[in-house]
Specification:
By secondary structure, this protein is α/β, with parallel strands linked by helices. Helix content is about 45%, strand content about 15%. The strands form 2 sheets. A 6-stranded parallel sheet has the order 2-1-3-4-5-11. A 6-stranded mixed sheet has the order 7-6-8-9-10-12, sandwiched between helices. Strand 6, helix 8 and strand 7 form a beta-alpha-beta unit. The chain is elongated.
């Protein structure tokens, strides 16, 4: 029978005591360096790092959390991880957190309040240092039950006094509708997710403001609501466009709404922009690959994630100032789906 000392190195957990002995420092010093807490000289840090690498030391994150009071991890909870918007925002967030020595964990609420709460409880049991969330929309929902630092992105829950990073949704929507009108299109319809989502409500307000500024009357027949999926948007758009009183142009309030509407237009045998002009919120790769390319309201999505990460890191470093609301600008990217302006 092989002695424990003869077992392959990868089969044995290297202890802090062994690293300390190899580095020629006290066990307490090695623990502080490996756990990333407390003080240690630069020379001691270098000795411990060399010893840990030589021995193949793997950190025990649970023990490090107990010792330092920090898990060095942050959660991101979004409505749909398949949505390219959230994937891009997650990249910006992860890049910012990495600069602060934190790792990102991702969870999906599937736009369901109960699943959101379940995910937050799971994050809490892992003693995450903080949470970034795009909260589920619900008119009678309870406040978010999170005790630590919290940042909202893309959409917000009213009456929650925490940091947030959003874009100027109203101005972006208004610019898109005004552009459609400048191309000679009327009436202009809108397809959106439920208005309980704060960003959607702001985009609807921008749509209505643009119509009012143009002297056009708001007509509920030309405003349709779909579930926040591409399939739902497709079905609702087909219904909106199938009748003789269809709108001459459609503003779509999210990337799923745009994709579903574009496919519905094609399947109905209609042409963009000859039969129906189209402008949507969110700029994705596919919007430049179709014919014609789609006019969009572009959001600085990487920046949204990055700024959220910076706000959260500030809180983790002890900033206890009042909540900060960051509102980033959008950009109207004009392509051929609206025709000539």
């Amino acid at each position: 029978m092989r002695e424990p000392s003869d077992m392959p190195r990868q089969a044995r957990r290297v202890t802090i005591k062994q690293v300390a002995e190899q580095a020629g420092v006290s066990q307490a010093t090695a623990a502080r360096v490996l756990g990333e807490y407390g003080h240690a000289s630069e020379a001691a840090r270098e000795q411990v790092a060399i010893a840990a690498e030589r021995l193949g030391y793997v950190a025990n994150h649970a023990a490090r959390t107990l010792a330092s009071g920090s898990s060095r991890t942050v959660g991101l909870l979004v409505g749909d991880v398949e949505n390219p918007f959230f994937a891009t925002a997650a990249r910006g967030l992860a890049d910012a957190l990495e600069q602060g020595g934190h790792t990102l964990l991702l969870a999906n609420s599937d736009e369901d309040v109960d699943r959101e709460e379940q995910a937050m409880r799971a994050f809490a049991t892992r003693q995450l240092d903080g949470l970034v969330i795009s909260p589920v929309a619900h008119t009678d929902r309870a406040p978010l039950s999170w005790a630590g630092p919290l940042v909202q992105i893309d959409r917000v829950v009213d009456d929650l006094s925490v940091d947030s990073v959003v874009v100027d949704n109203r101005a972006g929507a208004e610019a898109a509708v005004l552009h459609l009108a400048s191309c000679g299109h009327a009436p202009i319809g809108m397809l959106s997710e439920p208005a309980e989502i704060s960003s959607t409500a702001e985009r609807l307000a921008g749509y209505r403001a643009a119509l009012a500024g143009l002297g056009m009357e708001f007509d509920e027949r030309f405003v349709a609501v779909a579930a926040p999926t591409q399939d739902s948007a497709y079905e609702v758009a087909k219904e909106m466009l199938a009748g003789p009183d269809r709108p001459r142009a459609i503003f779509t309030a999210s990337n799923f709404m745009t994709a579903g509407t574009f496919h519905a237009i094609r399947d109905l045998g209609l042409r963009v922009p000859d039969d129906v002009a189209l402008a949507g919120f969110d700029d994705l790769d596919w919007t430049t690959l179709v014919d014609p390319p789609i006019t969009v309201v572009a959001q600085p999505v990487i920046e949204i994630g990055r700024r959220a990460g910076e706000l959260l890191l500030d809180r983790l470093r002890g900033d206890d100032g009042p909540p900060r609301q960051v509102v980033l600008p959008t950009e109207l990217v004009v392509r051929r789906s609206c025709g000539e302006g």
